[in-house]
Amino acid sequence: MKDKKLLNAECLIDLLENRRFGVEYQPIISCKSQEIFAYESLARFYTANNDSIRPDLVYESLHTSPLSLFQIEYQQKKLQLSYAVNGHDIFVNLDQDSYFACGVIGQNNPFLKLFKDFQKSKVVVELIENSEINDAIRSLAMIDNLAQNNIATAIDDVCNPQSMISTSVIQLVDYIKLDKFVIKNKKNRNFMLLVKSIIDYAHSTNKKIILEGVETAEDLNLAKQLNCDFVQGFYYRHLFKKVG
């Protein structure tokens, strides 16, 4: 992580001024019915030559400039909601730092207003699970603000080896998304006992489980065996939708 080369200011300014970004909508599928339950909108970024830029690299580079981070994240969310697929809930990723970067936490927070004004379907705000205690604290404040306005939340990357679970955060969200690491480690007995415990906890508290990284029929069968509610991944690539 420390060796990752960040994008320079010129590239970031070009991204912002020329809006060199788009959206990819990936379906979240019901394990039982195999019908589309919702779509997750994922940010996509491009150079002036139309080459793809990794989203995580863009956002990590923007963290040195909170206002720029807010501007690009806000423009992305407007784009993601504008082209959301009719008739399905929409999951949107939101960086905790982006939410607070504008300095407004309460009812006038621009992201909150954007989500509340969205009428096409239900918005589910997806938080990234990580190892930073300050991010966990910010996550709790953001979840509380969203919950007070009847906006559902999800926690991403649960069981990723580079993240840590905040028990306070995981208690408050409506959806728990299991990282693709679960599929890669399905033969690790002790690890899978932990995964099953998380799933049992989720269902006993009326939360839903989404398994990410499903690429094969075998992966889908694993999700069913684990009693996951939904799945997501390249197995459903034919249903992906792109804008920009």
Explain the overall architecture.
The structure is a single chain. It is built from ten helices and ten strands. The model has no long low-confidence stretch (mean pLDDT 91). The chain has an eight-stranded mixed barrel with strand order 1-2-4-5-6-7-8-9. The chain is globular, with a radius of gyration of 18 Å. The two termini are 29 Å apart. With 244 residues, the protein is an alpha/beta fold.
Class computed from helices, strands and strand pairing:
alpha/beta
Quaternary organization: single chain
Total number of helical segments?
Answer: 10
Strand content: 15-25%
Please trace the helix and strand order, writing H or E for each element. HEEEHHEHHEHEHEHHEHEE
Radius of gyration (CA) equals 18 Å
Low-pLDDT windows of residues: none
| Proportion of helical residues | 40-55%
Relevant terms:
244 residues, alpha/beta, 10 helices, 10 strands, 40% helix, 22% strand, globular
Q: Secondary-structure blueprint of this entry?
A:
Layout: H1 9-17, E1 21-30, E2 36-46, E3 52-53, H2 55-62, H3 66-82, E4 89-93, H4 96-101, H5 110-117, E5 123-128, H6 133-147, E6 152-158, H7 167-172, E7 175-178, H8 181-184, H9 189-204, E8 208-211, H10 217-225, E9 230-231, E10 241-243
Give a brief description:
This protein is of the alpha/beta class.
